[in-house]
Description:
By secondary structure, this protein is mainly alpha-helical. It has one domain (31-253). It contains eleven helices and no strands. The chain has helices at residues 2-15, 28-56, 62-76, 80-92, 98-106, 112-135, 142-160, 169-174, 179-199, 202-227, 232-253. α7 packs antiparallel against α9. It is globular and about 50 Å long.
Amino acid sequence: MKNLILSVLFTLQFFSIIPVHREIEPTPSRVRASLSWLPVIGLGFGAVNLLFITALQPVMSPVTLVIVALTIPIVLSGGLHLDGLMDTGDAYFSYKERDKRLDVMKDPRTGAFGVLVLLAVLALRFVFMYESFRSEASALWLLVLIPALARVAMVGVLGHVPSAKNTGLSSFFQQSYRTGVTWSLAAMSVFLLFGASLLTSLNVSIALGVAAIAGIFMIKMWSLRAFGGITGDVCGAALEGMVTLLWLIVWIFI
Length: 254
C-alpha cells in the first residue's frame, strides 16, 4: 500500500503542479506504476476542467469558456507537455541532420518555429472544441475522457518506440517499462471508450479508438524518421498532438 501511495505521489510530483512536499525515490516499480497512473491523472485534470466549465457556463460566453477549457489542463500540468511540443517544433523545422536536431531540442531557448507550432496547435484545438461544444452539449463530457485517452497514447508511444538516445526522460522511463503497463493501458482504453460511447455515441467512441491507435503508429514512424526515436520532448509533443487529433475526431463525428 505504501508503494502504491508513493507511486501516485511520484506521478503527481512529476507530471503536475500539485505540490508534493516529499522526496520520493524513483525506484523502477514506482516509475513503472506512474506510467499506469498517468491516464488516471488525466481523468482528474479533465474532471477539474469540467467542474470549472460547468460552474462558469452561466456567466461566460462560449468563446471564453473554450479558452478556459484550453487553459486549465495547461496550468495543471505546468505547461510540461507544451514545452516539449515547442522544443520538438524547433528541432524538426530546423531542417538539420538528425543528430543536430537533437542538439536543437536540448537548447533551453525557444525559437520562432516552436512558438508557431504552439500557436497552430492551440488555435486548431480551440476551433475543434468550440465547434464540438456548439454542435452537441454532450461533447463537454469529453473534457474528462480525452486528456486520459491522450495520455494512454503517449505512454503507448513511450513503451513501444525506441529512444533516440540513451539518456534523458524517455530512456529513464523506458528502463522501467514492462508488458504489464501495456495491459493496464489496454484496460484503461476500454474503460474510456466505453464511457465515450455512453456519454456521446458509439460512432464517436469507435472513431476515437481508431484515431488513438493510428496516431501512435504515425508518431512512431515520424519520430523514427525525424529523430531516430523518441525523447521526453517528443513524448510531450505526442500528447499535445494527440489531444488535438482527438478533438478533431470529435468535431467530425459528433
